[in-house]
Write a structure and sequence with these properties.
Oligomer: single chain
Distance between the termini: 38 Å
Strand content: under 5%
Largest sheet: none
Radius of gyration: 21 Å
Number of helices: 9
């Protein structure tokens, strides 16, 4: 819920005792998910543009969002590192954190080029996750008894991705998810209350996932400490 700023460092810390580089493994996993989300987002923007073709402003926003997705896909899929030219230009004046970032990026792109089969599997799994997210919206529509079609679901997913990009700096995006989803529903001629219900459903799903994750972390930490004490 707190985004990559908390989730990625936490995953790296949990993997610190495993073989290989946890930083590279975590960031490759995240980058693949972003790539899949961007692909799905482009199709969602196209679908949404068909529904709001009467609104020039909405079409402009969707075109801008699709352009951002395309640029992001290009940067992620680019085989050559992005930071290396900048490091060479700065030379001796290059800060240590930028050199470290260039090293990690090179390792990530090397991993991707050497493990193409694994990358394809990760991409398909992440695309399946995008489909499940859309199915979640369809399930809420069905429960609320609201007629829907694929275009509506994809349009709402486009709005959801755009909202996440704009409000990613907010802690847990409190209020932003609810307000943006209600607004997206209203823009599509649907009930704002239904949009709020969808946002709260997703919020509860996130809270449940966090509770399960923290529960597992607490149990695993206690179990590992118990094993260490017995060994001593």
């Amino acid at each position: 819920m707190l985004g990559a700023a908390v989730a990625e460092p936490m995953k790296i810390r949990l993997l610190r005792n495993h073989a290989g580089s946890p930083t590279v493994a975590t960031l490759v996993d995240t980058g693949t998910y972003w790539f899949a989300s961007g692909l799905f987002g482009i199709f969602a923007c196209i679908s949404a543009s068909l529904l709001v073709a009467h609104s020039t402003r909405a079409l402009g926003l969707l075109a801008a969002l699709a352009t951002i997705f395309i640029a992001g896909l290009f940067l992620i899929a680019r085989p050559k590192p992005l930071l290396s030219p900048l490091v060479r230009v700065l030379g001796a004046r290059c800060p240590a954190w930028l050199r470290k970032g260039e090293e990690i990026e090179t390792m990530m792109r090397t991993f991707a080029s050497r493990n193409q089969r694994a990358m394809r599997r990760m991409l398909w799994l992440d695309l399946a996750c995008q489909v499940l997210l859309a199915a979640e919206v369809a399930a809420v529509f069905w429960i609320l008894g609201i007629p829907f079609h694929a275009g509506t679901i994809l349009a709402l997913e486009a709005a959801n991705r755009g909202m996440k990009m704009v409000t990613g700096w907010m802690p847990a995006r409190i209020g932003a998810d609810e307000g943006a989803t209600a607004g997206a529903f209203a823009a599509l001629g649907l009930s704002s209350a239904s949009g709020l219900a969808l946002a709260l459903t997703r919020r509860m799903r996130d809270l449940l996932a966090c509770a399960v994750g923290f529960g597992w972390l607490a149990w695993n930490t206690r179990f590992n400490n118990g094993v260490s004490c017995c060994c001593e």
